[in-house]
Amino acid sequence: MAGTLLEVDGLTKRFGGFTALHRVSLSVRAGERFGLIGPNGSGKTTLINCVSGALAADGGRILFEGRDITTLAAHRRTRLGIVRSFQIPKPFTSMTVRENLGIPLEYAAHARSQAGDADAEAAEILRTIGLEAKAHLRPAELTQIEMRKLELARAMAARPTLLISDEAMAGLSSVEVDDILALLFRLNEQGITIVMIEHIMRAVMRFSERVVVLDAGERIAEGTPAEIVRNPAVEKAYLGE
Amino acid sequence: MVAGLLLGGFYAAVSLGVSLIFGLLDIANIAQPAFVILGSYAAYVMNSSFGLDPILTGLLFTPVFYFLGAVVYRLYYGSFERRGDESLRGLVFFFGVLFIIEVSLSLKYGVDYRLVDAAYIGKSIDLGGVGIAFRLLVPCLVGLAMTLALHLFLSRTFYGRAVMAVSQDRLALRLMGADPVQIKTIAFGVGIAAASLAGALLITIAPVVPSTDRDYIGRMFAITVLGGMGSVAGTLVAAVILGVAESLMATFFGPSWSLAVSFGILLVVLAVRPAGLFGR
Amino acid sequence: MMARPARALLVGLAVVGAGIVVAALRVNQYVYFAGYVVLQYVVIATAWNILGGYAGYVNFGTPAFFALGAYTAVFLIQSTRAPLPVLILAGGLVSALLGLGIGYLTLRLRGVFFSIATLALSIVLQTMIINWEYVGGSRGLSVIRPSGPPFGSYVTFLFTVMVLLSVVAVTVARFIERSWIGRGLAALRDNEEAAECMGVPTLRLKLFATTVSGFLLGVAGAPFPYYVTFVEPNSAFNLDYAVNALAMPMIGGTTSWVGPVIGAVLLGTAQQLATVTISSEMNLFIVGVVLVAFVVLAPEGILGLVRRLRGR
């Protein structure tokens, strides 16, 4: 397929006797807005962890820009351009907001291309995200939504080609959800491919061009949001018969 | 071999406190062995001044130790857990507590070996050709009784179940209408109270100096980790394994190697299977 | 700003110079004897802090690294009578290897488990030394100092060597702290998973930290046989090293190289005074109480207190 950015091929992951992912395949096209959904425990987070390198897969392959990255360490994948944000924000607590961005700028973005003025780049990202006034605060002084924004800003600082957003909106008010959604749309317009894992159906369905549904570690459906909504298997997975 | 089995029963008694506090509450109380030695000295003092039986003393002192434990936990909670930086500084805190207890004891009682006197110490019975010293048998039996008591406490009482809930399912705890801090205070107190009895058992088995606690850090944590972090039955099995391993090692290679067994086992278990033999 | 490294170099040279001047003054021998211990703690606390303070991995096994340095020296003295610089370098390298080993432990062990493992390591190593007769076994071994130190008495000479080693240790720590390595370590201390996902090669940085920390701890231990002239396992593996190694940075402040130095100088000097005037047990008691008081009341150490006072 032309323009394939990420290709997951027959991915299997077991924890002891429990199979969390069973031969899951999917491919994400460059520039796409891709949704990944499924009930609790369906294996979404495990899949992300395998793609980002936090977990080692037990079977199958992961290709990024045509290159096999199945056994690559997580930080190397980040340098290649696969960057994730965490469901529960994990900021560097001893650093200011600005310094939080400094880590990916130094270790990921500039590890690839030497050029770049870290201060200017950080300032630019903070302006895009809307955190410029908070640059010198520590994460403990931020509100819930600001924490989510910091999580996204830090991911942006790694200069991703593929951004995996793991439930960036859980627990936010609907105004705040719109706020984050608008942000993700803007990032996508800048050419960043986005994989969104989300529980808030309204958000995923509005955002994604294509959606894959996982249930009990298997891929049960794929299609446009409209197709997914009408898919009986999906309905069954969510409502349990 | 028999000595190892008996030692195992005693090790179970010593490790119950860590199993409860570290295994279930996830509090890295490395000062536990120092509390055990404190129990030993309480038994020593009561024995040498009033001729009181060490194990009776251990039992009598459990409320005092419970209270001490509750105070230490409140201090720990207020200083670290509530601020959310318990891991690193909490560890250092308990290391300091261990040191303070140990050094206080050597300041007060010196670094000479202390022992206790009771009617059954020095006697033994003959079981099918194997002589079993009461000195070892009694601590083993008391240790087994303590293990059973803790098991019943955790499975049958309201507070016991609440402790299990703290470690596993916070939602269930809220449904029970219990305050986690209060539950943890109780559990921590019970863990320290167990140290009072364990200390009495320890000084019944062998003479004690303030620095004996260092030998037990490894044993306690080895047993707790090996036993699967907070499983009462696992603790008992792991304690017996360690007891037997140590006496075999002492028999074949000499006593100076026996201490390395527990730490060696601990290192290997930590490196290979951190979830323990009976891990969740 | 350009002159910064140059200025640091000057300060380092000045400290070494001052050390030599003090050594040349030939004041009461006890001053050098006690000064050696304080400086040895500067090295130990600084080395511990590279792993404990910067990377957030609490090492309870300081005695293992220190004693390994000391016993490497004993082994070399016994077998080849190698000169002191060789002993120091060899002691450092052997401890660095041990450090690399515990670095790989961090792959599977974090937080409390790592700390307990380092404690276990210390006991296992001690048992091995106790059972190794060549280096003295449990009874210990007398070490004869080489005749004719380059200058002054041998203790004065060792004191000067320790001044040099302290400057080296502090310079290394300061360099790490201010470089990309230090920023990466701080990130993984705050959140290892997030650091890895932000491109920080966490394993490599951890291995670096454990190795450098181990090296410096071994370096601190290597001159020890010549200092005490009688080495036995209980003094080389003393738990006091474990407590002091973490108490000193905690009291001074763990996030900057200055912290361990302040902590070591204050606590080390206080201990030396207490040993003379009260008793050695009392001085350990004080360490324990001060340590607990600091972690409870001033978690950022003296540096944190100073910062807070300035901030208001």
What descriptors fit this protein?
heterotrimer, A: 241 residues, alpha/beta, Rossmann fold, 2 domains, 4-stranded antiparallel sheet, 10 strands, 39% helix, 26% strand, B: 280 residues, mainly alpha, 12 helices, 2 strands, 3% strand
Can you put this structure into words, describing what you see?
The complex is a heterotrimer of chains A (241), B (280) and C (312). Chain A has 241 residues and is an alpha/beta fold. Helix content of chain A is 39%, strand content 26%. Chain A contains 9 helices and 10 strands. A 6-stranded mixed β-sheet of chain A has the order 6-7-8-3-9-10, sandwiched between helices. In chain A, strands 2-1-4-5 form a 4-stranded antiparallel β-sheet, with helices on one face. In chain A, strand 1 (4-15) and strand 2 (18-29) form a beta hairpin. Chain A is globular, with a radius of gyration of 18 Å. The mean pLDDT of chain A is 86. Chain B has one domain (2-113, 126-212). In chain B, 75% of the residues lie in helices and 3% in strands. Chain B has a two-stranded antiparallel ribbon with strand order 1-2. In chain B, helix 10 (213-226) crosses helix 11 (232-253) and helix 10 (213-226) runs parallel beside helix 12 (258-272). Chain C starts with a helix and ends with a helix. The model of chain C has no long low-confidence stretch (mean pLDDT 86). Chains in contact: A-C, B-C. At the B-C interface, helix 5, helix 10 and helix 12 of B face helix 5, helix 12 and helix 14 of C.
